[in-house]
Structure formats: structure tokens, C-alpha cells
Amino acid sequence: MALVLERRIFDALAEVTGFYGDEEHTPQREFLDAFFDGKRFCVNVWGRRAGKSLLMGQIGAYCALQSELKIWIVSKTYSLAGKVWAFLLPALRKVMLEGRDFKVRTSDATIETKWGTTIMLKSADHPDSLIGEGLDVLIIDEAATMKERIWLQYLEPTLLDKRGKCIFITTPRGHNWLFNLFELGKDDNEPDYWSSHATSMDNPYLPQDDFARIKRTTDPLVWRQEYLAEFVAFAHQVYSTFEREKHVIKPRNLEGWSVSVAVDPGLANPTAIMWIAHNRTTGEDIVFREYIASGMLFPDVLRVLNEFKPEGGYDGLICDVAGKARGQETGRSFFGWMNDHDMSFNARKVGIVDGVNRVRGRLLNVEGDIRMYVTEDCPKTIQAFEGYHYPEREGEQKEEPEKDGVHDHPMDALRYYTAWRYAGQEARSWSA
């Protein structure tokens, strides 16, 4: 059976559960209009305590009234997904009899109705459990905390055969992959997508006078991200001075600039290759090309380097000093193999903290000068600047950035370049 969209049934359910309450919750109403209008991908970027989980619990209860549907509630962890579950079960118990109309299996967090509908709680931390289902409805809670790979490789394919609907509910986490989906929802040429934005203050059931107190004790970036639900620089961002308006530029004529390339080689992890133009007169650097892909062997890297080799050759070829270690299937080091194929790489051993400070000093120095830019042709590098962050876990040292497997590779390559280009210069950052 396919999902039936009937607003009157939802409204009847809401009457029984008391969902609507006494005050108008405009963002919730706007979402319901879009959902029942047939939008397949609803991207809801809302602040903390804005009513996301309560709304999704009600949607889950509405779906449970129908026959032979498959519904998943997914988040980064079971505990996060459990926020929706905590609203869903009480709503079901108000309109059905547990044990007669539906039963709950706590062993695998599953609700089964007697008319064949199942609702399952899933964790993105266990991606193998996300394979093999054709879904009618997928609810992704705190979607921005998940990796894009989980959506593309595991979750999006579950919607194909039934043309299922997906509801993203999240507080933002910088300009990551969820930001791109949010932008699709604002594009009139993407009729399947719809986007919604709401702040914490848009929830009429929260005590509004508390927000004045919270503002007095909260970091401005945290306030904008968590409560205003803005796509801002990540609160634990390594390069917090990076701003799209200042550092991202349109492609330009780079005649007379030298060109270097920096590589962070990987196999299971992505290989990041960055082309950087340098102006010897002004001292500016521009990242103007990127190539980031998984599964690249040494010959693959060589092919790409030759494909984009400038007429005058490379001014410098740079990688990590770890490139001198033997690896991959060749038994040779990256340095040695490339040298045998007329690509002589350089490396300079610089500590991570010192290297980060050198990049910071290029983005914004103590005099307020910007000496490093990235063109619009490098979207992954731009996202890496914004998503490269320090660990958030309480009690963990924040001296070195998080190795998240996504943002660290292009940022590592850029750090190698800066350490090589400005060897011997003192690392001065904006915070010096």
C-alpha cells in the first residue's frame, strides 16, 4: 500500500492527541501544508526546542494508522532518534490499544500494527542495518550531524522503488551537505523539495523571557546556530575567520602566477589534491582547483597531476612527510613512486598546531590582511574550511582538529602547502 495524504485525517488525529494546542505554531502548520501537498523531500532547519520531534511523532502516528507502510526514524545515534520515539508512542496510545492494535518490540525498536505497518528506529552509527528496505516514509532527525555518505549510499536508495517521502529535521551544523539540500528546497526548479526555517523563539510554548538570559551566557555563534538555526561558521570551527563573503572569489586570470599542487594521499580515505596559484608580488595564494576522491592509487594521482599540469610546469609538488613511508599495493612510498615517474615531491615537517596557525595567518593576519582565497570552482574546499572543527566531546583535548574523514583531507593538503611555501617564516595567526 502507498502512503495516503489526507489532511482531514491528520487533523482528526491531532484533535484526539491535543497536538495543535491553544496557540498557533506557524512553522509546524507550514510544514504540514507542504507535506500534504505532496512534497517528497522536506528539509526543516529549526532551532533547539522548536517543536521538531513533537511534530515528527505526530507524523509517525498518522502513518501508523495506514496499512502496510514501512517507516524508519533515523538519526546519528539511537538516543537522538529516540526523541521522536518519545512523542510517537504516547500519541499512538491515545488512538490505539497497545497489544491489540499495535505491539512494540523493544529488542529491535520496532512498532508493528495489526494492519501491517512497521515503524523502526535506526542509527546511522550502524550503516549495515540501513540496507535492503524499500521505505514509504523516512524521518531523519538531526540530519546535519550525519555524514553525507550515509544519506547518499544508504538512506536515499531506500526511497527509490516506492518513491518514498523523506523528512529532514535538524539544527544546522555549518554549510555542510544538509545546507545544499536546504538550498534545493528554495529552488522553484526542484518541485520535489521544500525547505523550512524556524528559530527556537517561533515555538509559542517556550517561555520567551528565558531567551534573554540564554543570550547573556551563550557564545554568539552558538546562539545563531542552535537557537536562530542559521547556517553559520561551526561553533568549534578551526578556521573561524573564514567567511564566504571575503574569502570565496570568482575564477580569475592567473597569468603570471606560479602554480603548485598539494596532495594528501589516501586509498580507503579520500585523496585530496589542491592546485594553488601564488603571486610573488602580492604574496597572495588562490586555491583554484580541487580533486577529491576515494580509492585513488598512485597511478590515478599521477594521471590527474599530468592532466592539469600547467604549461610552465609546477612550481612545487607538496605532500605530507608521511608520504615517505611505504604503502599501498606497490610496497613503495608515495615520494619514491612519484619521483620514479618524474614527479619530485617536497615536504616539510611542521606540527599540526603550527601548520594550522600558518593557514590562519594567510586567511587573516594581525594587521587585518587576507592573503589566501578559494574560487567558487572548489565547493568541497569551501565546505572543508567551514566544517573543519575541533572535538566537541566534553573533557577531550581541543589542541588538534577532529579527523572526521571528510573535511580534514583537503585541509591537511592546504596545511602541507603553507608549511612548504612559507618555511622559515614565523607562524602568525589572527589570534597572535
Identify low-pLDDT runs.
426-432
Sequence of strands across the biggest β-sheet: 3-4-5-2-6-7-1-8
Average pLDDT level: 88
The rounded Rg comes to 25 Å
The name of the CATH architecture of the largest domain is: 3-Layer(aba) Sandwich
Task: Give the helices and strands as they follow along the chain.
Answer: HHEHEHEEEEHEHEHHHEEEEHEEEHHEHH
Walk me through the topology.
Blueprint: H1 7-17, H2 26-36, E1 41-46, H3 52-64, E2 70-75, H4 78-95, E3 102-105, E4 110-113, E5 118-123, E6 137-141, H5 148-155, E7 165-170, H6 177-184, E8 193-198, H7 209-217, H8 220-227, H9 244-247, E9 248-249, E10 258-264, E11 271-278, E12 285-293, H10 298-307, E13 316-319, E14 326-327, E15 332-333, H11 334-340, H12 352-363, E16 372-375, H13 379-387, H14 408-421
Parallel strand pairs: 1-7, 1-8, 2-5, 2-6, 6-7, 9-16, 10-13, 12-16
Antiparallel strand pairs: 3-4, 4-5, 10-11, 11-12, 14-15
Helix pairs in contact: 1-3, 3-4, 12-14, 13-14
Features:
single chain; 432 residues; alpha/beta; Rossmann fold; Nucleotidyltransferase, domain 5; six-stranded mixed β-sheet; disordered C terminus
Describe this structure in words.
By secondary structure, the protein is of the alpha/beta class. The protein has 14 helices and 16 strands. The strands form 3 sheets. The chain has an 8-stranded mixed sheet with strand order 3-4-5-2-6-7-1-8, with helices on both faces. Strands 9-16-12-11-10-13 form a 6-stranded mixed sheet. The C terminus is likely disordered.
